[in-house]
Design brief:
Blueprint (H helix, E strand, L loop, with lengths): L4 E3 L5 E4 L5 E3 L2 H48 L1
Antiparallel strand pairs: 1-2, 2-3
């Protein structure tokens, strides 16, 4: 099946005549989109890691508080 593209009103898009799908032909815009998506994914990953560190710090704080109580009550 040969794919034939017909230019649409907007230069960045063409229509595939066999499937009638709109194809984005602007590779620079597509690469910019992928880069932005990758940055967004990195932000989400970092956010999740920060949340894990915050939870760990809270747990350490609770353990230290309990340890302090045991030490002061034991004297």
């Amino acid at each position: 099946m040969k794919r034939t593209l017909v230019q649409t009103e907007k230069e960045a898009f063409a229509r595939d005549t066999s499937t009638m799908a709109i194809i984005n032909t602007d590779t620079a815009a597509f690469l910019a989109y992928k880069a932005a998506r990758k940055r967004g994914s990195a932000v989400e990953t970092l956010s999740a890691e920060v949340q894990i560190v915050k939870n760990d710090m809270q747990e350490i704080k609770q353990i230290l508080t309990q340890l302090t109580r045991v030490i002061t009550d034991g004297k």
